[in-house]
Amino acid sequence: MGNSKIGRYEILSEIGRGAMGVVYRARDPMLQRVVAIKTINLALSKDERIDFESRFYREAGSAGRLNHPNIVTIYDVGDTGELAYMAMEFLEGEELRDLLDSGKPLPLERVVEIAAGVARGLAFAHEHGVVHRDIKPSNVMILKNGVVKITDFGIALIPAASRTMAGMILGSPKYMSPEQVIGKDVDGRADIFSLGVVLFEMLTGQTPFDGENISALMYRILNDTPALPGSLRAGLPAAFDHIVSRALAKLPDDRYQTAAEMAEDLLNYKELEFNAQTSPMGERKNALDHSKPQSLSEKLIHEDEQTAIMARSEPLSTHIRSSGFWKKIVALSVLVMAMAGWLLFHQPDDTGVERTSPSPQAAQTVPVATGDLSIAISPWGEIIVDGKNEGISPPLNTLNLAAGKHKVEIRNPGHHSVISTVDIPPGGQIKIRHKFD
Length: 437
What we know:
This protein is of the alpha+beta class. The protein has 15 helices and 16 strands.
């Protein structure tokens, strides 16, 4: 760069470049220490600039108070007029991304140490009202002494408009939570989902969601259920299937509610109770079912209720197959319902004539007429019809709907939603095309 200083910091060398700016190794002459300087390039209007400065300093102040061994320390923030910057702890070590790219499988205990370290750091941040929003291997540093550090809380400080201008790549699509994909407000459970993706990659060497383009990738994050880690890594303890499954639940309410709870299960995976993730023969299912396992804390608190807890965590069909007692209960229930149905439809009325069930002909329903809704959205959009999420277009291009009027909403983060009403004729087709500029 043409200037050898940013604020009071003397630039020593360039460390790397990202979507939002450059990271430098610099010297703080006041405190005589080496720091990392992350610059943030922002193309903002005057109003956006005022909003950014207010939020940047407020939220950077919050992040700067995150004094935790698993979080990089932010020392200072500033604004040169052309760019904003953060001065932070200079770390010597290796990014988790580099470890994964080496192609060498990580030992299981090292995976646990790294994931639990990140979870502990996130738990502390969340308790102080800070959500990272961009957990990924390149934002996890492994220091020479083995300590794990979460880096780059910067995306949490940048206004949504600026993140949109920088492109969806800022959100690291492979690691984004479903709620981030569709542009909803997020809390710490979005970070838990992203950590689940990172854990999956550490365990298996691959990410759980992939796609030939960003639209296909986002569609899969929203809709696909990935394979179990244990089906991709021989000998992996089944507890990790549970941990990953819960972290990657599509709905935030179905995930770990705190990162501390996830850290606890990781560190105590050998004692973690599980049952619902296996078939009656003890074989792994081939995909995550997102059932909630019993965490270690639940196990300790509800030791006397273990049987009841396990019953709630398993599908009823599992108990029916595994217990002769339940078979008898179900058979008896079916018999009672059959008798009740016979009595209902064969009671004589006041005239002495038995009531009978309607004939099959009388019970037939008239088929509902349908038509097609053809969809073409650029670059992509989430399609909501009558309040129901139907998927992302592309790849979604046609919906078969009941004939008549429907409310169609098209969403794309950073843009105003497009809402229209269509009237689909029986057997006909209505086309919707929209381009988000």
